[in-house]
Amino acid sequence: MPNHFLSIFDLKKAEIEQIVQRSARLKKEKKESITHHSLLGKTIGMVFEKLSTRTRVSFQVAINDLGASPIYLNTSEMQLGRGEIIPDTAKVLSSYLDGVIIRTYGQERITEFAENSSVPVINALTDLEHPTQIVADLFTVQEQGIDISSFNLTYIGDGNNITNSFIAASALMGYNITICCPKGFEPNKEILSKSREIGQNKIEIDHDPASAVKDADVIYTDVWVSMGQENESDGKENVFEPYQINKNLLSNAREDIVIMHCLPAHRGEEITDEVLSSKNSVVFDQAENKLHAGKAILEYYFKS
Ligand code: CP
Ligand code: NVA
To answer: In terms of domains, do 118 and 154 share one?
Structure first.
């Protein structure tokens, strides 16, 4: 049975720490032009049912850098896009490939794929989770000199895939997390209860942004309308307006607060241009670190 990365819960604290350390090393070595062909000769499939800029390109470059070959598969150009079932697709693709990276809608789609795959499968975003993003983001937090097992993270906005993976990671790592969202837009209930069951950390849901940012070391936000939710976006802007990360809100936070966003951002909605471009913002470090963390994740799952 291959080792899949479908959820943050698939990793243990020590494994996340190991991948983060490896990301840091790979980043340093890339700057020194040191190469590692640790996946030489392998072929990795990238099955994408949703759009992507960062995840797609960073994984493609990471695969090339490690000496393997990526095959990008847009599902609208596959038989999957015209009704071939997931189990048949998974059996066939995994007989050609050494690993598969998937971005899709429901978590059950990637789970079904993995159950029928003879090679490891990595989740590159579903409606429920975005685990590779969170590993890369923890690396970015660590680069800021923050201990990733004990800091205060405040996530403001929609309780979405990013939120869910950050909550799950908090229970494993031990950092405190406050989710500040409008009522009715809370994160996934099962992930919340599982995280509260296994974690010793503080996991809080708040609805008041000013109080939620007070003790934060890091403030994170994401779009109010995630991919696939476009039909449910009517009126969301009004409900979410008080949850915008702007200068006024940040007057309640520490001066050296770290601002994070996985991107793409909707400037002027969940975050102002001014804050996104400020010295506190590490959003482009986050984007770059997807490459280095992506490599560490690929090595961890696909290296024989
Ligand atoms: N952060 C992130 O996953 O971006 P993309 O949708 O561009 O891959
Ligand atoms: N929550 C966003 C993240 C994009 C990287 C989405 O799912 O669209």
So the answer is: no
Long-range contacts, 13-16 (Cβ 8 Å, 24+) = 13/149, 13/172, 13/173, 13/174, 15/300, 16/135, 16/138, 16/169, 16/172, 16/173
CB atoms within 10 A of CB 21: 13
Q: What range defines the domain where residue 249 resides?
A: 145-281
In a domain, 2, yes or no: no
Could you give the CA distance from residue 163 to residue 146 in angstroms, rounded to a whole number? 20
Distance CA 288, CA 128 (A): 23
Q: How far is the CA of 5 from the centre of ligand 1 (A)?
A: 17
pLDDT tens digits for range 36-94: 899 999 999 999 999 999 999 999 999 999 999 999 999 999 999 999 999 999 999 99
pTM for the whole structure: 0.98
Ligand 1 within 6 A of 263 CB? yes
Residue nearest atom 6 of ligand 2, based on CA coordinates: 226
How many degrees, rounded to 5, is the angle at CA 108 between CA 301 and CA 131?
40
Answer yes or no: do 28 and 121 share one domain: yes
Q: Which of 156, 216, 214 is nearest to 185 (CA)?
A: 156
Tokens 């997807």 sit on residue: 290
Q: For the chain, what is the domain count?
A: 2
Residue 200 Cα to ligand 1 midpoint, Å, equals 30
